[in-house]
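Hi there. Long-time user, first ticket. I'm pasting a complex I've been working with (about 301 residues overall). I'd like to know whether the download I got is complete or cut off, because the file seemed smaller than I expected. Thanks.
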Amino acid sequence: MAKTKDISLIGVPIDLGADRRGVDMGPSALRVAAIESRLASLGYTVHDEGDLVVRRPSGYGAFGPKLKFLEEIGAVCDELHRNVSSAMERGRFPLVLGGDHSLAFGSISGVLQHKRSVGVIWFDAHADLNTDETSPSGNIHGMSLALALGIGHPKLTAIGGVDKKIDPSKVVIVGARSIDPGERKLIRELGIKVFSMHDIDRLGMTRVMEETIDIVRDGTDGVHLSLDLDGLDPEEAPGVGTPVIGGMTYREGHLAMELLSEAGCVVSMDIVEVNPILDHRNKTALVAVELAASLLGERIL
Ligand SMILES: NC(=[NH2+])NCCC[C@H](N)C(=O)O
Ligand SMILES: [Mn+2]
Ligand SMILES: [Mn+2]
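Hi, the file is complete. Here it is re-exported in full:
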């Protein structure tokens, strides 16, 4: 699908944005699941750029339990912003291997450096639209979409340049089934389009993705896909830290990727929340690699 034939794999071994430890081993689990050779078999030249360095904290840090590990997460997102940006500068497709979902505002700000306007598809059981004021947990992985919209702690929203953020009318959340009260309020205020599991059940994935693609592609010059594995049902993707029952099936996930691949609009991607400690025989990383391969052009026939 993508016009670019070079992919940069950027590992971000961070688990500080979430409560359950172990998601920092996600990049390794995805490599063990053969992400590099799978994408190479589709004709891409894959450049594995290794992992970013994540500082080890001693406590929650200066901002306390309402914004846990803000300094370390901010530092790694700043670094990721530079890495994604330089991959795009070299004409490569940045594929970010997480790590928890806090990293996404770093990758999105990197993409924004190169595009006038970017659409975002947030594939997730959650909305990740909390701020330090609304978050029930203080975990930054539940705040990253809000941060990408420029909402949240200024120390984090400043990453990548304050003036350029994504437009809420160009964001679509797909697969949501666990939304906090403050997030619901923000979704209404900003008019963010959400296809919840209820909508997927009623409309079917084909219609959901057709409408999603229309929204994110219209008036933008590229789409960032942020794929949180907990969007899938825990039956298909058990290795995640915040599983929510009633998610997408394996086929629904694939169909979404195949339709996106046909649309040819995705320019960058995150794979996040793969936690091998909670997984069964690397099942979740293997599914993630399947989905990435579908997105990047693999077909049944
Ligand atoms: N990326 C994720 N898995 N986010 C889960 C967020 C859970 C909850 N909404 C919170 O803010 O704490
Ligand atoms: Mn998420
Ligand atoms: Mn999630």
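A couple of notes from our side: Residues 6-295 form a domain with the Arginase; Chain A fold (CATH 3.40.800.10). Residues 124-126, 228, 230, 242, 273 surround manganese (II) ion (ligand 3) (CB under 6 Å).
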